[in-house]
Amino acid sequence: MKTNSLAFRLFATAAAWNLLVLPIAGAIIYSLYRQEVETSFDRRIGVLLTVILQDSIDHGESEPGAPKDVGEPLFEITHSGWYWQIKPLDGKPGHPLVSRSLAGEVIPLPSEFNIEPNDRETRWANLDGPLEQKLRVAETIYVFGEGKKAQRYSVAVAATWGEVEASLRAFRTRLALALALAGIGLLAVTLFQIRFGLFPLHKVEKGLAAIRSGEAERLDVELPQEIEPLQHELNALLKTSHDIVERARTHVGNLAHALKTPLAVIVNEAREDTSQLARKVTEQAELMHTQVNLYLDRARMAARIGVIGRVTEVRPVAESIIRALERIYRDRQLEFSVDCPAGARFQGERQDLEEMLGNLLDNAAKWARAKVVFSVAAAPAEADAAGAWLEIRVDDDGPGLTPEQLAEPIIRGRRLDETKPGSGLGHSIVADLAHSYRGKFELARSELGGLSARLTLPLAT
User: Fold this and answer.
1) Alpha-carbon distance 298 to 429, whole Å?
2) First to last CA, the chain
3) Cα–Cα–Cα angle for 268, 271, 277, nearest 5°?
4) Rounded distance, CA 253 to CA 15, Å?
5) 399 in helix, strand or coil?
6) What span, in angstroms and rounded, lies between the C-alpha atoms of 245 and 366?
7) Global pTM value
């Protein structure tokens, strides 16, 4: 997932939100749970305090009796963390009544903790007990006896915080694990939502790729209503592009007809006169005819280059041209060899490929002694070239060209060899078309001994 992608932004936002919300939610849940546990713990201590006080009243009259039926076995286990204590106040001598769990010790209640007489309020405190246990203590004051025999007693129940803290630690661990799993689950759901939500855009991408590769002429996929207008606008743009190209072709054709006919009339009329002026007119008219053809060809190429969705299979075009050349040169019994993968496709117009291959194969057949080889392969990638490319080679076993001739630039109308008929336009047309497709056209010495024409063109993927 790329950092500048829409999916990454959505996922990062969801992850940041989870990292912010889940810890806060965890802290709130833990705080509420701790509050509930502490309240429940205090309630339990308060109930035991009431039971012990009532039991001591039931087993004594002027002074408290030892509670016998508290209902909490932990009061019988030494240093269990659960303790009760009944202690006389106001300096009255006597040993306090304590639970067996205290093992003869006492709960160290602070003096300022005691309650005023006749105040039945329960007081709470946290203090250290036996074995440095952290205790939660509840104390109340009760007056036993009447009149002069009335005596205040402190009745206290203490319980260790260890039980509560152990419960809180276990809950905190389980809560952290649950929130972590919830966070992972939410991120997984978010990732699924992103993939599911952005899937229509992948359909658009595939549809556009199909248009570019020539498999389709318009975008026709089922999309959500939010991006359905995008499909309509893209199809309208494609139609407008095709209409512009068709109009350009029509205008170029009309211009060619409008210019060529008057030039042909001028040339024919001038050829009937043998004067110096007539020859000059003929020469300039033919030059104008050549220039018109040059710029009309370039206009046609410019109108066709870059049109979306134009893809041409290379092998059928080459085989069609070779069949025609075999009929033309059947008296020479030339051997044509084709080495072209079935899936090789040119990203461009069929008529442009026909014109390029026709010129190259015709030139090779014209000069070959016995053999012409047509081959296609993937071109090596270059650092400054985007996309995929294919290399088309046409080799012959003819006389070829000298190193000096191969080094000369290809100029329209100039023939590198004057021993064969021709206009000298073939290679320049091929070069112009190749450059229009951002490709290359080169001439080299062939391994067969003749000329090797090498054409690099965009490969349709």
Assistant:
1) 9
2) 24
3) 120
4) 61
5) coil
6) 35
7) 0.54
